[in-house]
Amino acid sequence: MNTGGFGFSFGPGDDDDDDRRRDQNPFGAFGMGGADGSGGLGDMLNQFGQMLSGMGSTMNSPEGSGPVNYAMAERIARQQIGQVTPVRQQDTTAVEEAVRLAELWLDDATELPTSSGKVVAWNAETWLTETLPMWKRMVTPVAQHMNEAQLESLPEEAREMMGPMLQMMNQMSGMNFGMQLGNALGDLAKQAITGSDFGLPVAPTDVTALLPENISRAAKDLDVAGQEVMVYIAARESARQRLYRHVPWLVERLVSSVEEYAAGLVIDTSHIEEATRELNLESGDPAAIQDAMQRLQGMDLSPRISSRNAQAVSRLETLLALVEGWVEHVVTAAMGERIPSTAAMTEAWRRRRATGGSAEQAFAKIVGIEFNAPKVAEAAELWRRVDVAVGQERRDKVWEHPDLMPTAEHLDNSADYIDGLLDEGTDDTFDEEFAKLEEMLRGEAEKGGNPDGPDTPDSPEDPEDPEGPAKN
Q1: Residue 40 and residue 33: Cα distance in Å, rounded?
Q2: CA spacing 20 to 30 A to 222: which of 51, 150, 285, 363?
Q3: Which of 104, 10, 30 has the alpha carbon at shortest distance from 364?
Q4: 118-121 and 304-307: which strand pairing?
Q5: 411-449 pLDDT tens trace
Q6: What is the C-alpha to C-alpha distance for residues 121 and 444, in angstroms, rounded to an integer?
Q7: Exposure pattern of 63-94 as b/e (b: 16+ CB <10 Å)?
Q8: Domain map of the chain by residue range?
Q9: Within 10 A of 336 (CB to CB), how many other CB atoms are there?
């Protein structure tokens, strides 16, 4: 069973999985499940000790309150990143030149104009600082609704007993979220190579950012010139920024999908209650309690977590695929003939996405939502076929409204979507031709012509006209 970024699984539960019933963590409902899925009592106590040792000033700071202790998250992330090399001026210049060239080539491959924002070079520490606000926006609703769902899942008697301890439990939960978030952000900061890496719009608005040091490390095994790698990555990031800048609904739709999923979180702890009943803790017998504690050490009673709004994850998955697929197609069209290594770099990018640098893995680590890998290759092929069928301008007009976008089903069957575009195109052509005909007829009428044919009263040749000219 996969675990979410905060030690929870967001996959569907299996009521018939007897092994899962035996290997669960009774403390998972309080945000104290192990991130690696072990979650035994010893691990739980270890984690609790780490949380207590990190309290300090973070408990009393504004960033330390709420469903996630962001002060702790940022501190742990910076520790995880370690020492970073300051960005050199030559790196900034290289990034600016790569983006400038990439933008020039992209102009031939898309109707969407350049984002016209700042072009900057970052290191891992800057990536953390600049992207943290957007991560907070996506993480906070998940953590908040998770806490609410945890309380709702407890028996009424347990909620009453926890009343006096509720504030402390919320702080402990916030610290637990903060610890795991910090570790995840620190890890991603060391592998991110652009501001909106992983296909997620986490960089500030109108900022095109590349991380030269991380790019060099990621490209060391490629048999491609460093300048070509830099231009390729610049093209991908610039293409994303064109979408984020000129498709007003896109970023909000991505974020609202996360918020919608979080609002419907549901936790099922019936299997935990069943397991604890079998431990016979109510007997008060010291020997029975000791035996129960020993049995607890080998259990991992994680709550089963789902959402009433599971369709939001499917929408998120599809939208991420369409964004990255469009980027891949446009960059290939812009660079394929100019830089022969484009195909090799695209394949390397796909391998990177499959082994860690992907949106779904970033979401699982940081936001705590798990979903299937977006079908980027299928989306890229869909955009290529749309391009061939209706042209570049029509292809990019699809982004004007979310209702015009391909659906998840279209990723597996692009023909239906393309047929719809062609049908619309035929209607548009007919309307244009009809409008031209009407304009021509009006023009002839204004010039005194006779567009209505020989049946008009003005025709002197009309034999049925009783008022016609007299014969000589």
Answers
A1: 8
A2: 363
A3: 10
A4: unpaired
A5: 999 999 999 999 875 545 545 555 666 676 677 677 665
A6: 63
A7: bbbbbbbbbbbbbbbbebbeebeebeeebbeb
A8: 1-53+267-282+293-307, 72-266+308-367, 376-446
A9: 13
